[in-house]
Amino acid sequence: MVVLVPPRQGHGAQLRSGAEAGEEHEATLTIHGVTCGYERWPVKTLTDPEARRIDFAVHPATVRYLGSLRASAGGQDSRGPLESRVFGVQARLVGVKREADSDYHLILSEGGATMIAEMPLTGCTSGAQHRYAMTAARAELERAVGGPVGESWIHPGLRVRIAGVLFFDLPHGQSGHARNYAELHPVTGFRVLTASP
């Protein structure tokens, strides 16, 4: 059985008060009891046809640099020119929660800039390129925070190194986004560098 739940507001719509505080509005798709995302989901989970051409060599970057790039998103199952590269950043993990699409939503902060990284649920990544790396990164985050992440924000404050495929999202009320809505989505590597102060 497949159930599609449309977003409460479409992209480009005005966000109502409180949306920037973390009320995301995104469509979900439920297949065999697993809730996953819908919009650009093949790209977000490396199941799109172009995923085989991704350069998985990690290019060092900063949160500020990725947030300064010109946004160039692809389509539902196609990638923009920069969405085929993997970047690695070191940052403070200031917030994490599980979203309606079962992703772990991470807020990274460094030098006054923030950006999002996302970790899909394994059940939503069947047939994905680098599925093991995505699953291992999510498990490493769970070890770092003491178990699975729930729907309420936690604030680990950990200094981390995160690698992931660059992805340009559209505004839908997400917390911690970069100015250009650049994300590391999906995360393919996660390591704790130092604990919170």
Describe it for me?
The protein has 197 residues and is mostly beta strands. It is 13% helix and 36% strand. The chain has one domain (2-194): OB fold (Dihydrolipoamide Acetyltransferase, E2P) (Beta Barrel), CATH 2.40.50.140. A hairpin with a 2-residue loop joins strand 2 and strand 3. The radius of gyration is 15 Å and the shape is globular.
As a whole number of angstroms, the C-alpha radius of gyration is: 15 Å
CATH architecture descriptor name: Beta Barrel
Overall average residue pLDDT: 87
CATH topology: OB fold (Dihydrolipoamide Acetyltransferase, E2P)
Q: How many angstroms separate the termini?
A: 47 Å
Strand order in space, largest sheet: 5-6-7-9-8
CATH class: Mainly Beta
Find the count of extended strands (DSSP E, 2+ residues): 9
Low-confidence stretches: 1-22
Q: Give the % helix.
A: 10-25%
Give the overall form.
Answer: globular
Number of separate structural domains: 1
Helices, by number, come to 3
The percent range for strand residues is 35-45%
Concise description?
By secondary structure, the protein is mainly β. It has three helices and nine strands; from the N terminus they run E-E-E-H-E-H-E-E-E-H-E-E.
